[in-house]
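Below: protein 1.
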Amino acid sequence: MCGEWLVTASGKSLTAVHTREDREPFVLDCSAVEQATKQTATADTSREESGEEGGTDAVLALAASASGSLLAVTDDRKRLLLLRTQPWTLLSCRCVVRRCTALAFSRDEESVWAADKSGDVYSFSTTHTHTHTPGELQLGHLSMLLALVVTADDRYVITADRDEKIRVSLKSAPHNIQAFCLAHTQFVSALFLPPCHPDRLFSGSGDGTLMLWEYSTGRRLQSLELTQIHQEPDTERVCVRRIASSADGRHVAVLCDGLPKLQLFEMRTASEATPTQSLPLPSSPRDTTFDPQDRLWVLLDDQHTPALLFTHTSQRWQQCDALQPDLKRVTEVLRIHSLPFPDAGLSVSQLYKVGFDNTATYRQRKEQRLQQKREPAATYPQSNGAKRPRHTQHTAPTSPGNP
């Protein structure tokens, strides 16, 4: 959600639909945006990606500012687009060094932070929007970054990578690390700061768990196994794709790859999220978000039913009728502009690390060496190719006077 606008990205197309009023939708074709000039000042040639100067114009990540007045988009051609929503206007098109995986605005909305696949985080000014204004390198990981958030007080920037690490850094001095949140056993795919408890952090991972942290100390407060909550223990891989909450932070929705359900939680205390309801979905879910009226939107990979809308009444979430005006308007626009929904970036299966055991080969080779030592060799080759006995007879040396 970008204010009252529901923004979706499908391939190279960006579509924004107003959820409350019958306005003209905004559609942006990234392939029609003029290619930004490649900067050389910020390029790290020692780590520059090889063979990736092309691209498909596909949208890789997007983020909205807290007020909903700005939207940042990054695409497969390593461009960062900054848009204003009132009215919809493209403010700038700048280059990034490498393809980005996550975006986040600072709370003062004076900068947008971009995490890339090499593990670096750059900040770009939203006030100096000239095409040649470079980004500033802020921090880096040794692994691909997958999620990025900035805290509500603008004090910390929190990053998560493929190596199961969550790092909490000071925003004003990102080289100073406040804490690490370490407990996941697979890549960390989602981060979320609940509005009602700004000192807490939700994290989701490819290990199928949802964790709650006190991020300033790195202390884990809660760990929830989503496969057990859904009563599907036989599911091989479950990855958290999205964590979202209502405006008051009371209701938390978690969407996972590999599960055709949407799990709802309620934050009754600052240190616990209680599972409340599981919403079955008719097809594979792509994303989910809450609008300012605390209605829950779910994006589906279904041409006939691209979106669902849920409202909370009588202590339960109920699905709205397809003829509900807001849902009908959004559905009609998405059917035209936002289908199908291809995966522009890395698929989840590519993020899992492939384990292998090389001890079997090592033991086999070691056994072969030991076997060769145990086998007696009758003869050894001479330098001229002839063979001589292994044991030679030694004769006593003669004295100088003897013949």
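Below: protein 2.
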Amino acid sequence: MKKEKVQIGQEGLFDARQLGVPKMLLLGLQHTFAMFGATVLVPIITGLDVSTTLLVAGLGTLLFHLITKGRVPAFLGSSFAFLGGFSAVAPRLADGSANLEMLPYACGGVAIAGLVYVLLSLLIHAFGIERIMRFFPPVVTGPIIISIGLILSPSAVTNASQNWLLAVVALGVIIVCNIFGKGMIRIIPIILGISVSYIVAVCMRQIDFQPVLDAAWIGLPLHTSAMAKFDLNAVLMIVPIALATIMEHIGDMAAISATTGRNYIANPGLSRTLLGDGLATTMAGIFGGPANTTYGENTGVLAMTRIYDPRIMRIAACFAILLSFSPKVGALISTIPTAIIGGISFILYGMISAVGVRNVVESRVDFTKSRNLVIAAVILVSALGISSGISFAIAGYTITLSGLAIAAILGIVLNAILPGNDYVFHKDDEPVKEPEIKHVTPDQQ
């Protein structure tokens, strides 16, 4: 008798166990590919250890899932928002090498910054999410989500321009598989896009395998010399960045909620997601890694595949941990040409902005009201126009806010002071009902 097949409807699939273990492993590997390029790019820029970064990303994701009761399909990778802080505390030396003496102090600042998340989580728990979320209606979060994807888009073009042929091959395979593919082919378009374009790159002799040959098979990802050290000046330079990343976290949670159709801000609650993200960031800093953040790349994968099971993210986290113990495997994955990552990002970053548009549309934000138009306009222009951020000094210390952070702050302030804020956050206290999984029987095929 022919085995039943699982059909993924428009509502998506929340229980990937219906697909079987092999397919779940492939889906987890796909999310690992999606996060890998950006996650390892942060340590490459800052001088932090790549293996340590992969380890804390995997452990941080598992910790996040533990605190959020395993309900939120999120992966925590390296945060780019703290690059400015690392550059200020531990700038690279004159010869371009990493500032190994100061990097631990920057990591100490990251560890303390994570505690800011914990503080806000406690405030939400104390005063209630309804009061807090009144400051974050869809007219604010929607444009912020749109901005996240649009801000990332230039990097996709820059990466793809390294080799447009490879980028187009990767992009084309993903589109074909996602639109015309059936069964598993439609579920793993990113892995297929990477695989096909990588083969093309090998044929074009674009891959240098020497780093793979030189790398060891097994290595420890933690180094005691890189673990966090604490200095007040470093803390004061890095901790304010958390105010910006908290806004990004709320936007990411809204994006994941809009993608899956479930309100994770209400259940398991923003207090839990902030707590999970904050503790993961603190742990990463203590171990000598970059700050963690929920990854938009993986949200893009969710939007594309419509497989929303958080178990897949935990599988991806386990893959990241395994990779951290194998420098050779990490070296092999790092040989993926930048152009291929750029081609993939065309889809993923665009998906993020599209989710923001959907969030605004489905929430029925009334843009006939001038206040809503003003708020959205200021957010979009600030996020996209202030590319280098704004720096200012407080007590002799220079603080830099990114365009996205400024946009979020302005949006929140305008929403609070302009008349006509009629948004009411509805919290569903009942457990979210699992959608019915549709099956295709042999008679229906």
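The chain has one domain: 21-93+132-419.
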